[in-house]
Specification:
About 50% of the residues lie in helices and about 0% in strands. It has about 250 residues and is an all-alpha fold. It is elongated.
Length: about 250
């Protein structure tokens, strides 16, 4: 008899937890994703469910802690430097939904880093002309100087002219080289680097041979609830105090 009572109580407890989770999941989906960080209870619920999703689907590239891999151009998701958007949950959710250059029609795919050492740097844009090896070196010196690192003065001055002139770098990265997160063009004026260690060799590889990173689209491979939970988990690891302070 006692065993039966325990079994019934356990079943009721499981049912109550399931009902509470179902209610929270419905609230999560109905809410504005950008308003959810202000609700610590819902955010905590989403993070609890999003963590195993991240470990199962995202950690293979971004790492278990989300710090990425610069040797492969996989971004760090734990800092406040965002290649696409500004780190709002809705923006993170959109990336997870549609991906980066994923062939999904809604994917972020506008910014493509040309391969300036090739005869046709960007086959999709015939107006972009290649750069000579010494011109690539000059652009590198300009970027080194822009970041406050030691650079050859005359080469940096020539590189500045190429950056804002026929090199066309400004078209994506802006005249101040601070990039454009609306299209996924990185800030080149700071010390944060997506590929490699940010040194001359890594910069040369990016400028000479181009970059076209890919992130898969999950919109048809995961539920809307799972994608939102995953987006909020990513938000939480880039905002360590979010759950405690509600922001």
């Amino acid at each position: 008899m006692r065993f039966l009572i325990v079994l019934i109580m356990a079943s009721l407890l499981v049912a109550a937890v399931f009902a509470a989770d179902s209610y929270a999941a419905r609230r999560l989906l109905r809410a504005d994703p950008d308003a959810l960080p202000a609700d610590p209870t819902l955010l905590r619920f989403a993070v609890r469910r999003g963590r195993p999703l991240f470990e199962a689907r995202c950690a293979v590239c971004h790492g278990a802690s989300g710090t990425g891999d610069p040797s492969m151009g996989i971004p760090n998701l734990t800092d406040d430097d965002w290649l696409y958007g500004t780190g709002r949950p809705a923006e993170i959710e959109r990336v997870i939904d549609y991906g980066i250059r994923s062939r999904n029609p809604k994917a972020w795919s506008l910014a493509i880093m040309p391969a300036y050492a090739r005869p046709q740097p960007n086959p999709a844009d015939k107006n972009i002309q290649p750069l000579k090896p010494h011109e690539i070196d000059d652009v590198i010196e300009f970027l080194m100087r822009l970041q406050g690192r030691q650079a050859e003065t005359a080469a940096a001055a020539r590189g500045a002219g190429l950056f804002t002139g026929h090199g066309g770098c400004y078209d994506c990265h802006s005249l101040d080289a601070k990039g454009d997160s609306a299209i996924g063009a990185p800030n080149l004026s700071d010390a944060i680097t997506l590929y490699g260690d940010g040194g001359r060799e890594a910069l040369h590889m990016s400028i000479a041979y181009g970059r076209q990173g890919v992130c898969p689209a999950w919109v048809n491979r995961a539920s809307a609830a799972s994608i939102r939970e995953l987006a909020l988990y990513v938000y939480s690891i880039s905002h360590p105090g979010a759950i405690q302070h509600g922001y």
